[in-house]
Amino acid sequence: MTVLTKPAQAAKGQSRISIAGVELELFERGQGAPMLYLHGGGGIGLDLPFLDLLAKDRRVVAPSHPGFGQSSLPDWLDCIDDIAHIYLELMDRVGLTRTDLVGFSIGGWIAADLATKVPERISRLVLIGPVGVKTGRSDKLDVFAMPREKLDRLRFHDPAKNPVDLASLPDEELQTVARNSETLALLTWEPYMHNPKLKHRLHRVTAPTLFLRGASDGIVSAEYLERYAALLPQARIETIAQAGHLPHVEQRETTAAKVLKFLSP
Amino acid sequence: MKAWHFSENAYPYLPPADEYESIRVSLPNRIYDPGKGAALYDRYIDEWLVAEDEGVEIMLNEHHQTATCVDPAAPLVLAALARLTSKARLLILGNPVANRRQPVRVAEEMAMVDILSKGRLECGFVRGVPYEVLPANSNPVRMNERQWEAMDLIVKAWTSHDGPVSHEGRFFHHRNINIWPRPFQQPHPPIWVSTTTPGGAGRVGARGYVQATFLTGYKGTPAIYDSYRKGWRDAGRGEDVPVNRLAYARCSMPPRARRRRAPAPRSSSGT
Prior knowledge:
Shape of chain A: globular
Oligomer: heterodimer
Number of helices of chain B: 8
Number of strands of chain A: 8
Distance between the termini of chain B: 5 Å
Radius of gyration of chain B: 19 Å
Strand content of chain A: 15-25%
């Protein structure tokens, strides 16, 4: 999960949709076979150029999760499962009868959850540096308890090229960054970054699944991803060189090419 | 006006400051010597007893995983003081109820202390400073909402006397609330709530609880008290807001050090 990334800005293809009392900010790009894209813990802002690459061949539908970006957060909502249910309704409302599904970090968690709920509606599934299950030892890493510099060293292959400079952000965008972090804590604080039930449900997933991981990812380890992938019936893993936790930001073209190739075999 | 003696029960026998990363949360407890710690409890409790002898009331607080305040279960020390003292009011400021999973258990602990002390408890509730969420593994989001629901649940537990009642809230659920013992003071012990912002003070004023504040200094404190008074008046409690509802906690240090740390507020250093 990214904790601090650039927040969503008003951009082309941005609209709003109201679902179960949640005002969702929705980005829709491109035409073609549909793809639902689910962002990570830092919000959708840094992902937009990546979505533009995917949208050259595809219809991309990408919501800001409740409590992220410009999407509202109702009092009752406090877990990933709640968001997955919102997105079941979103899929109905925007005509995603059957769709490819791509999720990054906690978006990968939501995507995996969705794929257990309606496996028949997911064609192919891509999980980029996903969290959401606990497969090994208890976690010693706590992204909420470490200084930002240390977190950036774990997140980026090249921390010097961190695309976000908090000091230069205007107050309004900083507020969104802070709100994104707050919602991330609400959703993932306990149990930390996972739902103990999910690993017992992943056998339901029928879609061929690609796990992608940046080779330098200091947050999602290779061993973790191997054990995660082993829980899905049809999964394989690919690694992206010179990238950390955000391969779609640090190696945008390579990551987009791998995703599109997998989705259109 | 009342004055209260407050000690954080600090553990001072630490290695040089450059040999550890933080004095809070992550400082290994191998540094804590149980023998020295026991002697420190003797000393701090003796100090509270001296305070009582001098006509000063007693206040204690709670922090976790820190050498700055080795009192992670303040109700235990409160219970000891309830038996060792006989006159002083006993203020706990306070119970970190947003970080406690069972508010009804807190209601039971406080009722017991009130009985043990024969009605000398002043019961404070605090949200807790940010680094307290790690020892408690407490979600840092919606803490204010949890704190208020917990306080209301505790008051309900203290004041329901006709068999089990239920609570179905946003954060807490209880089907059979019927605490034994119930508090000594009726309808319940005085309640204190701490805040450092005007936003929280209005709600405390509306309930008529004691408003405690600290570290808000000469500029911040009047705004908090004004917000409290507005909440009090808006709730129809009358135009006159008793001054004994407003408390300020500050450090007692040599005069020069005190001036450097924080100027004394206009209001008193007690209630």
